[in-house]
Amino acid sequence: MKALELIKLYLYLCECYSTELCWYFQRFSPNTSPNNQKITDEEVLCIYFYCRIHENRHSKKDIYDFANRYMQSWFPNLPNYANFNVRLNQLQAIILGILPILLEFIEKQHIVKNIQEDILLIDAFPIMLCSGKRNGKVATEIADKTYCASKNAWYYGVKMHTVAKRVTKKLPLIDFISITKASENDLIAVKPILHKLVNKSIFADKAYSDIALNIQLMKEQNTYIYTPIKLVKGESDQRRQFKKAADDLFSTAVSTVRQPIEALFNWINELTGLQNAAKIRATNGLLVHIFGAIAVCLFKIMNF
């Protein structure tokens, strides 16, 4: 076990918790206290992130088994697995709250260089609770079933809509994340954030193409959305052939610029197994799975 890395991570989490994260999850009476009060929130978070970052263990059961076997001397008050799982799920708001802290630190310390603030990449990433034609019964308030064209499959789950800043010759840096039901239209899901973007160039896929919205953003916010060219319904073959060469070149250029966000999703998924949420059994557990995976990737960027 990497003792120095564990200590460094624990001290950083303690600092974040005492200055800001403690306000994300307050217990207002003894009845809301956890079953095992001997282990602190900071210790639970440290175990969770250390095992994911340094030991490549991403399921809660694997994390607990590793901690129980190798980390008892560091955390003698480790509860049983059921209590550990409950405590971790209760801290989902804190795990979400740590993301902006990590992103702010990355930008202020210039850990990621050559960030192009005026160029944004937008895409959605499916997170699957179950696939095929099965009807899921987990997190029904935020998940549903839909068809994923890129995977050519039906699945039950959610979508992670991501806005990322373009970085020269590197993976983009996440700027905004939202979670919606799987069937939510990609453009509708990101419209609230689009109306807050000023003087930006946005690159996305065809799902975000909307002429009326583009005109509005250009006039009011000097922001433009670039997407590959969509075929116009009812357009004649002669007209399509006349524009084909120019349209293909434009579509290729847009796809080249937005390709890094797909590489970002692939990196996150390979590192954390984000897309496969088949073992999740609760809404809070799903949110911990998603935001915990993003936090792990940000810690990796920070070389924790």
Offer a few descriptive terms.
304 residues, alpha/beta
Distance between the termini: 14 Å
Largest sheet: 6 strands, mixed
Distinct helical segment count: 9
Supply the CATH class of the largest domain: Alpha Beta
- Helix fraction? 40-55%
Shape: globular
Number of E strands? 6
Rounded Rg: 22 Å
* Domain unit count: 2
Beta-strand residue percentage? 15-25%
Quick overview of this protein structure:
This protein is of the alpha/beta class. The chain is built from 9 helices and 6 strands. The protein has helices at about 5-20, 40-55, 60-70, 80-90, 90-110, 185-195, 210-220, 235-270, 285-300; strands at about 115-130, 145-150, 155-165, 170-180, 200-205, 225.
Detailed description of the structure:
- With 304 residues, this protein is of the alpha/beta class.
- It is globular.
- It contains nine helices and six strands.
- β3 (153-167) and β4 form a beta hairpin.
- The chain has two domains: 3-90; 115-281, 2-Layer Sandwich (Nucleotidyltransferase, domain 5).
- 32% of the residues are buried.
- Strands 1, 2, 3, 4, 5 and 6 form a six-stranded mixed sheet that branches.
- The longest helix is centred in the C-terminal third of the chain and has 36 residues, at 237-272.
